[in-house]
Amino acid sequence: MISTASDIIVPWAGQTTEDYFQPAICKAPDGRLMLLMQAIKASDAFGPPSCAFSADDGATWCAPSTIPSLATRCLADRAEEGIADVRPYYHPLTGTVLAVGCNTFYHRSADGALVHDRTGHHADRRQHPVYTVYSGDGNWSARQSLSHPFFADCANWRIANFQMVIKADGSLLIPVYFRPAGQGHYAVCTIHCSFDGRRLGIESVGDTLSLPSHDLGESSLAWHDGRYHLTLRALDGHGYHAASHDGLAWGRLACWSWEDGELLTMSATQQHWLATDERLHLLYTRRTPENAEVFRYRAPLFIAEVDAERGRIKRHTEQIVFPHLRRDGCDNHFGNFHAIVTEPGIAWVSDAPLWFRIEKAAKPEDDHIVGFRTEVWLKKFALS
Fold it and tell me: 330: number of CA atoms within 13 Å, CB side?
């Protein structure tokens, strides 16, 4: 059972001119709430990750400040290397926060605008995971990169917008998506990692999960009732899931469906978990009769209980976490959100509704987003 423990919290309402996006919340070593986010500059173009804190359970927040080690770096040829899709997790055994994301590349157009580089990168500009550690003294470590021979030949490999499992021994299971050399589509695997409060190291790599003609990515992992559960974003109009006893060897992929077998239409958007010992919940967006015109059906944001044994969503338990709203003729859109259990029985969901319109071009692939604005939304839940 899940119940709302707070109304929607909007930090810095009317107090900032920044359009913050993909907020991610966790507990800091001193017990405060920590919130990571990035200013969005253009479609898929972000400023450096910033961090804010709340000492009163989310009621008030300090002003966000940039994480120094994740600052944007200038490269040659009007290019920049940024850090994106960062998610923070408190690590109890070391009393630190591990924040993991990936590098990404932008270029400056002739008019100086920052544009996400979708055209492919130089050989020395492959995407790969990076991380930084927040310690009890209030400082962030230097930026560090993650590497392993399994991914050495990949065109890109990313840890992004994810949920991981912290095991009792302090080791980590983290989902990764990657584009194998010479192949056109992203696949997914999980990695078992050691972490000593300073360095993250890959100990083993799990099975590869893939679809024959579509990308998989931005996966999330949860532990519930003796098994690991993985949910995956796809680009074929569905979300996928799989289960495992060890978090490395996975069963078959299945599309998300209701208990009666009817498939959900999800359209290339993340899903995330909230798990307790008793219940497993999924957060997601899907097509409804009311949102057919919303880009990728990205509002409202739903939560529902999952039949973990059958891998199906219990329709009668579905609730709206954040609503579908229209402002000035524009729909809000969710998608790059985060969900976390911060203490037994308490969970938080963080998202940034994005209002925009799409300016059509001669070719659909040249359509672009204009006039966007965002807010940061937080909500606290009681779980049982």
Answer: 16
- As beta bridge partners, residue 226 has none
Distances (CA, A) of 312 to 16, 51, 234, 256, 307: 41, 36, 17, 6, 5
For tokens 């290397």, what's the residue? 81
Show Cβ contacts of residue 208 under 8 Å, excluding neighbours closer than 6 positions: 187, 188, 189
Q: Digits of tens for pLDDT over the chain (384 positions)?
A: 678 888 999 999 878 889 999 999 999 999 999 999 999 987 788 999 999 999 999 999 999 999 999 999 999 888 899 999 999 999 999 999 999 999 999 988 777 677 777 665 556 789 999 999 999 899 999 999 999 999 999 989 999 999 999 999 999 999 999 998 888 899 999 999 999 999 999 999 999 999 999 999 999 999 999 999 999 999 999 999 999 999 999 999 999 999 999 999 999 999 999 998 899 999 999 999 999 989 899 999 999 999 999 999 999 999 999 999 999 889 999 989 999 999 999 999 999 999 987 777 777 667 777 778 999 999 999 987
169 close to 161: Cβ distance less than 8 angstroms = no
Q: Phi/psi at 123 (nearest 5 deg)?
A: -60, -30
Mapped to the 3 state alphabet, what secondary structure does the chain carry?
A: CEEECCCCECCCCCCCCCCEEEEEEEECCCCCEEEEEEEEEECCEECCCEEEEECCCCCCCCCCEECHHHCCEECCCCEEEEEEEEEEEEECCCCEEEEEEEEEEEEECCCCCEEECCCCCCCCCCCCEEEEEECCCCCECCCEECCCHHHCCCCEEECCCCECEECCCCCEEEEEEEECCCCCCCEEEEEEEEECCCCEEEEEECCCECCCCCCEEEEEEEEECCEEEEEEEECCCCEEEEEECCCCCCCCCEECEECCCCECCCCCCCCEEEECCCCEEEEECCCCCCCCCCHHHCCCEEEEEEECCCCEECHHHCEEEECCCEECCEEEECCCCEEEEEECCEEEEEECCEEEEEECCCCHHHCEEEEEEECCEEEEEEEC
